[in-house]
Amino acid sequence: MILSGKVIKTNYFKWICITTGCIFPVLLLAQKPSVVGRERISINDNWRFMRYQGDPDTLIYDEWPAIADRNDNKVADTKASESGVTVSSARSLKKWILPTANDFIKDPAARHLRPKGNPGENFPFVQNDFNDTNWEPVTLPHDWAIKGPFYKEADAVVGGGMGRLPVQGVAWYRRKINIPAADKGKSIYLDIDGAMSYAMVWINGKLAGGWPYGYNSFRIDLTPYVRPGGNNQLAIRLDNPPNSSRWYPGAGIYRNVWLVKINPVHLAHWGSFIKTKNSTAAAATVDLALNIANKSTKPEQIEVRTDVFLQNDLFRPAGSKIVSFPISVVTVNARANVVTHNEVSIKNPSLWEPLPKQKNSMYVAVTRLFQKGKLIDTYETPFGIRSVNFDPEKGLIVNGKAIRIQGVNQHHDLGALGAAFNTRAAERQLELLKDMGCNAIRFAHNPPAPELLALTDRMGFLVIDEVFDCWEKGKTPLDFHLIFKDWHEADIRSFIRRDRNHPSVIAWSFGNEVGEQYTGAAGAAVAKKLYSIVKDEDSTRPATASMNYAKPDMPFPEVMDLLSLNYQGEGIRDAPAYAHLKGIKTSPLYPAFHKKFPEKMIFSSETASALSTRGTYIFPVTNAISAPVSDSAGGDPENGFVSAYDLYTAQFGASPDKVFAAQDHNPYVAGEFVWSGWDYLGEPTPYYSARSSYSGIIDLAGFKKDGFYLYQARWRPELPMVHLLPHWTWSGHEGQTIPVHVFTSGDEAELFLNGRSLGRKKKGPFEYRLRWDNVTYQPGTLKVIAYKNGKQWATETIRTAGAAAKLTLKADRVRIHADDNDLCFITVTILDKNGDLVADAQNKIHFEISGPGAIVATDNGNPADLEAFPSKVRKALSGQALAIVKGNRKGTITIKASADGLTTSEIKILAQ
Fold first, then answer.
1. Residue 716: helix, strand or coil by DSSP?
2. Lowest-confidence range among 79-83, 176-180, 527-531, 813-817?
3. Is the pLDDT reported for residue 28 higher than 70?
4. Sequence-distant (≥ 6) Cβ neighbours of residue 299 within 8 angstroms
């Protein structure tokens, strides 16, 4: 049932067009079968791109309000108060774009009528004969900003909050698409998985539609404007305002784009919805809703057949059908839709199980539409069978078993690759999180790429799927609040319809720390309106919005199915070390919320926000279990470093130790989502001269920080592990105090310095690390032996390194696909002559490549490093750096790393 079309390849699999409305990975196939009635063809290649360097054109979506305050160095829990409005003018194209939302507006009277006229029809860029050969050739997904350079000045047009990269401005993409004469009479659509932002689409000089919100996937109906029998010209305009985000939004058409060709009667966009009910190991009821569209001018009688198969490792229907839904015959009126409902029982179903068990059994419902006996459409809906319950005392229950939420928040960028989605890069992020013991992801604060949800399905991660960071009250001058009134319903409904069949998605979040928390009943009314839209689209999952201010006695939390708390559970600025800070001050509120809402499950949607720079340690170290970072405590403003002891936090945050204790004191709390799993571009608290965050458990390059092992010790208690920090190379610190901390899944440990015991310590109640805070530094060997239940559990030894002597290279994989898309991540490590890591080395590393490949980017995980990512010269941070390599033809790729005075190293990668 795979249709003909271009294939996008990745590491283990190819992303191939299939009949779902989503994209799923398929292992390499010898040939591409086809389906009848539907084509979904990748059109990621052969684009031309131009970004204005001066004043842009006047084809604007709307007029933006003037920016009074461009400062982006604000504490993340600052009250949201922006209330600017767009000012429609004669130049505004908004009235022609709004009708694109009509399929997602429930009330017919509220839908938009397209005005007469064709704005931009005389503009050169939309014309078929415009010569764009001088424009840059690009392949999608494409992020125009990630190559830099970084803005380094203090008053940059794009500051640290948005990543100091040139995301701002207006740009155009152009591409020709061939529509054969045989496609006459078909419905032709353009599916864009993500474009940042205010996308407006012309085809053959006609304005076909657009979508302002940069994170949602959307469809443009090209049918009225295409000319079968030859080339048709696409032209897409994007407008990315400055001061429109609190983090790096990326720029460009940064996700996949597809051309869809189907018969006039077909399954509508995201037109299937599968609900599983009464799911047990013995049986499950599967309910199927299908939205059938008739774009023709006369009514049609349609026969609907749906069969269910298991999905195999090739992401294909496997073997014989398991069951068939009853056949339906429906009449679909002209220019109308009909929704059919059917259900069937599956005996002894293979249940979808999350991590750590990870039995990710998937099914595929294959729907076929027949018109007068002729097959006219085939549509596949992957789904999983599982039961999920949200118990206020026991927490999350999946398939009858309690599952502790061990989650992290993830932004959408992929570090040095920017926002341009890459399946292998996303998979690598999830692999490292899985190794830590993470089993859940909250996508903050916007819908992810559809391929990412295919990965969470396959890898067993639970997902909180989130759509908005603000509502009517904005957080930056030009963010989503400007278009909230016009677009909130369409954005919510399209978001849910796209993602609702993924078994990994367990709940919807329709807001994050919104300003409406502060406005009492008025804010709760807005929340209720959005909640009602979510539940109208999907009543099977709970809906919530994350709260960092709303208290139990306020009306806002009454709206929510789940109590989704940001930092409030462990308390905000309530510990002694935070007493001098301004801002929200909140005592730990788990008990108060539990008492007021005993029927609602509580979880923490954001915890910690502990800050650190990998491998850097600043003395003295706080004696508290949690403290805010400052220039004089835990921070190094000159280098832009934050101490890596994982005790220092953002002003509103808390250390992992404090978070763990708060949850263990309140065992009814279902778990947490740490802020954040990986460092991300933008929001570089506390140093806004930097370009990326400090809050990740894993740094931007994908190197594990010390905090990784603190979470691993808690989240994988069965894994024998112990971790020592800091490193033990401290020239010039002889005789000085160097605090030594131990993270272990054991319950006690003994520390040795040069063979001499420094004592054996046991974890006390609500204690999560072992501390030797008064160790006098002397070079040599530091060793720890961890114990569990009195028996030796794990050991680790670190040594004082000598002078840097050589480089070593290690690849995450030595074979990649030669497809210009698959990636290899190569770690460079600086060693002394004995092979020990030189943990304080910052040598400048030069990368070279030969053979059929290219170095896409380099990084070191240092948030303050403003060297452009494409540079082949990169300073190490704490003895390590990263090169990201792709293969573009078959053959052997050789990557070499060198540094002055050090032995050169190389590694070979096979592109095949």
1. coil
2. 79-83
3. no
4. 331, 332, 333, 334
Give the integer Cα–Cα distance in Å for 538 and 534: 6
Active-site option among 82, 489, 513, 750: 513
Q: Is 455 helix (H, G, I), strand (E, B) or coil?
A: helix
Q: Which residues contact 629 (CB under 8 A, 6 or more apart)?
A: 611, 635, 642, 643, 648, 649, 650, 686
Distance CA(729)–CA(726), nearest Å, equals: 9
Distance from CA of residue 862 to its chain's centroid? 21
Residue 575 exposure: Cα atoms within 13 Å on the Cβ side: 23
Buried b (16+ CB within 10 A) or exposed e, 751-784: bbbeeeebeeeeeeeeebbbbbeebebbbeebbb
Per-residue confidence band for 8, with pLDDT thresholds at 50, 70 and 90: very low
474-487 per-position pLDDT tens digit:
999 999 999 999 99
Which amino acid, 65?
P
Task: Report residue 253 as tokens.
Answer: 């058409």
Q: Is the peptide bond before 115 cis (omega within 30 degrees of 0)?
A: no
For residue 2, pLDDT over 90 is answered with: no
Q: Are 260 and 145 in contact (CB under 8 A)?
A: no
Identify which of 830, 764, 684, 748 has the alpha carbon closest to the alpha carbon of residue 150.
684
Q: What is the pLDDT of residue 33?
A: 41
Gap between the Cα atoms of 11 and 818, Å rounded: 9
Q: Respond yes or no: is residue 750 known to be catalytic.
A: no
| pLDDT tens-digit map of 225-265 | 999 999 999 999 999 999 999 999 999 999 999 999 999 99
Question: What is the C-alpha separation between 682 and 444, in angstroms, rounded?
Answer: 13
In order of 102, 707, 720, 740, the CA distances from 746 in angstroms are 58, 16, 7, 17
Contact 796, 762 (CB under 8 A): no
Q: 491: exposed, middle or buried (C-beta count within 10 Å: 0-12, 13-18, 19+)?
A: buried
The residue behind tokens 């791109």 is 49
pLDDT band at 35, cuts 50/70/90?
A: low
Stated as kind and residue range, the H or E segment containing 520 is helix 520-537
User: Closest Cα partner for 670 from 716, 743, 607, 718?
Assistant: 607
E strands of 193-327, at which residues?
Answer: 199-203, 206-211, 218-221, 230-240, 257-262, 265-277, 283-294, 300-311, 317-324
Eight-class DSSP state of 429: H
Radius of gyration of the chain (CA): 28
User: pLDDT band for position 45 (50/70/90)?
Assistant: very high
Q: What is the DSSP letter of 71?
A: -
Catalytic residue, chosen from 606, 672, 750, 796, is 606
φ, ψ of residue 330 to 5 degrees: the values are -130, 155
- How is 234-249 classified by DSSP, letter by letter? EEEEEEE-TT--SS--
Note the pLDDT of residue 82: 74
State how far Cα 204 lies from the chain centre. Answer: 34
Amino acid at 88: S
Question: Tens digits of per-residue pLDDT, 717-769?
Answer: 999 999 999 999 999 999 999 999 999 999 999 999 999 999 999 999 999 99
Arithmetic mean of pLDDT, 640-650:
98
Q: Is the pLDDT of residue 23 over 60?
A: no
Asked if pLDDT for residue 20 goes beyond 80, the answer is no
> For residue 540, which of 570, 494, 500, 577 has the smallest C-alpha distance?
500
**606 among known catalytic residues:** yes
Give the SS3 label for residue 274.
strand
- Across the strands, what pairs with 343? 287
Please state, in angstroms and as integers, the Cα–Cα distance from residue 114 to each residue in 97, 118, 152, 678, following that order: 8, 10, 45, 44
∠ Cα 839 843 849 (to 5°): 115
